[in-house]
Design goal:
The chain is mainly alpha-helical. It is built from 21 helices and 3 strands. A 3-stranded antiparallel sheet has the order 1-2-3. The longest helix is centred in the middle third of the chain and has 24 residues.
C-alpha cells in the first residue's frame, strides 16, 4: 500500500531518495518551489490580478483551499476509523497529499481566468481539432512542461498526489467530454488507476475532498471579495432585486452539472430567495456584533460560512458506485439542502462578479489579447523568432510528441495576466518594450 501510493511514475529508479523527508513532503516542496506556483500570483481569480492588494489571485485562492482541506483531512483521519485500516489506496486521506492537490489544482488555468480558457479551447478546437481545458492542463504542466533538477519532463510527483488532483478521471478526447485529462497524460493516469483498482469514473477520497474544499473557498471567499468591491451590496434592495434572483435561477437551470443537486425536489426560485434573505439577515446580525465595522463583519461572515461547510464534511458509502464519497453530511446522510445552499452562493459570486458588465468588458479585451497572441505565434516560421529561446529549445528536443499548436497553447496558457498584456503591447501597441527586459 505504501509503495503503490508513493510510487513516482516519471522518476528514474536510480534517483536519490531523501531519508529525512516523507515522499509527500517532497511533493509539497516541488510544487511550491515551481515557477508555475509563483505565476499563480499574477493570474486572475475573480478580479484581474493587479486590481488591488486586497483581492484574491489564483495563488491566494489555492493557499486558502489548501488550508481548509488540510484541516478537514486531519479531522476526518481522527473521526473515521475505517481510514486507519487503509484497505484501498484510494480510500485513504493523508493531509499532506490533500494539501499538495489543493496547491496544484489551478496550475492549468491560463491568463484572464475562465475567458482565457474559453478562447484557447475555441481556437484549438476550431482550427486544429484539439481541446484546451484547465484541469487537463494541470497534468500537462505537472507531468510534461515543468522541469526540475534531474528530470527533463515534469515534477515526478507521487501517484497519490497525481490521483489526488484528478477530480475528473476521464479521457478529455472522448466524445462529449468537457473535463478530463489529455490523451498524452491519460495513458499514465489510467495505468495508475488500473494498478490501484479504482472504480471507473470514481475519484480518490483525497481528490473529492480537495474538490469540495475548492467549492467552499469559492462560495465564501469570492463573495467576501465581491462585498469589498461593492459588487455585492449588503442591503435589501440588492438582495431582493428580481433581476438578480432571475439570473441566479437561470444559472442553476443552465448548469450542465445541475443533476448533482436534486433541484427537481425544491422550488428553485423560493430557495434562492430564502438563501439570500437568510444571508442578509446574518450579515445584519454580525454587523451589530462587530460594532458596525464592515471589514470585521466581512471576515466574520466568511469565517462562519467556511466553518459551517467544512465542519459538515464527512465520508459516506456510495452504493451506486460501490465506493465512498466525501459529502456535506447531516444525520448520517448527504445534506442536499446545505449542498444546494453552497451552490446558490457560488452562483451569487458568479452572477455578480463574473457577469458584471464591467468585468465582461475587461473579458472582451482579454479575449482580443489571447486571439492576437495566437495569431502572432501560430505560424511556425515566424513564431519561432518571437517566442523565448528556452521555450524553442524545449520544443526542438521534444517535438516528436509536441505539436506546434499545442506548444503555442502551452506557451500562452503559462503567461500571467500582466505578461500577456506586456507581450501584446510589444507586438501591437505603440509602446515598445526594452530589449534588456528579461522574459
Amino acid at each position: 500500500m505504501k509503495n503503490i501510493r508513493k510510487f513516482r511514475p516519471g522518476e528514474a529508479a536510480s534517483s536519490k531518495v531523501s531519508e529525512e523527508r516523507d515522499e509527500f513532503e517532497r511533493d509539497y516542496a516541488r510544487l511550491i518551489q515551481s515557477p508555475t506556483f509563483r505565476r499563480l500570483q499574477g493570474k486572475s481569480q475573480v478580479f484581474g490580478a493587479g486590481s488591488g492588494d486586497y483581492y484574491r489571485t489564483r495563488l491566494t485562492h489555492s493557499l486558502e483551499v489548501a488550508q481548509i482541506a488540510r484541516e478537514v483531512a486531519k479531522r476526518l483521519e481522527r473521526t473515521n476509523p475505517f481510514l486507519q485500516k487503509r484497505e484501498h489506496p484510494g480510500l485513504i486521506i493523508d493531509p499532506t497529499v490533500v494539501e499538495c492537490a489543493s496547491i496544484a489544482h489551478d496550475f492549468g488555468h491560463p491568463p484572464f481566468g475562465h475567458k482565457g480558457e474559453e478562447v484557447l479551447n475555441h481556437i484549438l478546437l476550431k482550427d486544429h481539432g484539439l481541446k484546451y481545458e484547465g484541469n487537463a492542463q494541470n497534468f500537462r504542466i505537472l507531468m510534461f512542461l515543468e522541469k526540475r533538477a534531474g528530470s527533463e519532463s515534469g515534477l515526478d510527483l507521487t501517484a497519490a498526489v497525481l490521483l489526488g488532483i484528478n477530480k475528473y478521471p476521464f479521457l478529455l478526447e472522448e466524445e462529449g467530454r468537457l473535463k478530463g485529462v489529455y490523451a498524452s497524460e491519460w495513458e499514465i493516469i489510467r495505468e495508475l488507476r488500473r494498478e490501484w483498482n479504482m472504480p471507473e469514473g470514481c475519484s480518490t477520497l483525497e481528490a473529492q475532498l480537495m474538490d469540495l474544499c475548492d467549492d467552499i473557498a469559492y462560495s465564501t471567499h469570492d463573495i467576501e471579495d465581491g462585498i469589498r468591491a461593492g459588487k455585492i451590496q449588503m442591503n435589501a434592495t440588492f438582495f431582493e432585486n428580481q433581476r438578480l434572483i432571475r439570473h441566479l435561477v437561470m444559472e442553476i437551470l443552465n448548469d450542465p452539472n445541475k443533476h448533482k443537486f436534486g433541484w427537481e425536489h425544491v422550488d428553485i426560485e423560493q430557495m434562492v430567495k430564502k438563501v439570500l434573505t437568510d444571508y442578509l439577515e446574518q450579515w445584519q446580525q454580525i454587523f451589530v456584533e462587530c460594532n458596525r465595522e464592515e471589514s470585521r463583519t466581512r471576515r466574520e461572515m466568511k469565517a462562519r460560512w467556511v466553518s459551517s461547510f467544512a465542519s459538515r464534511l464527512d465520508i459516506l458509502d456510495d452504493p451506486e458506485r460501490g465506493w465512498k464519497k466525501v459529502a456535506l453530511v447531516k444525520d448520517g446522510a448527504e445534506d442536499m439542502n446545505l449542498l444546494r445552499t453552497m451552490e446558490i452562493l457560488k452562483k451569487l459570486a458568479w452572477v455578480t462578479l463574473i457577469k458584471d458588465f464591467r468585468v465582461l468588458r475587461l473579458q472582451k479585451r482579454s479575449e482580443i489579447i489571447v486571439e492576437r497572441l495566437w495569431e502572432s505565434f501560430i505560424d511556425q516560421d515566424r513564431g519561432m523568432w518571437i517566442i523565448p529561446p528556452d521555450w524553442i529549445d524545449s520544443y526542438e528536443r521534444r517535438k516528436g510528441n509536441w505539436s506546434w499548436p499545442r506548444f503555442v497553447a502551452d506557451y500562452i496558457s503559462g503567461m500571467t495576466d500582466a505578461y500577456a498584456e506586456k507581450v501584446y503591447a510589444e507586438l501591437f501597441a505603440s509602446k515598445s518594450g526594452s530589449i534588456y527586459e528579461m522574459d
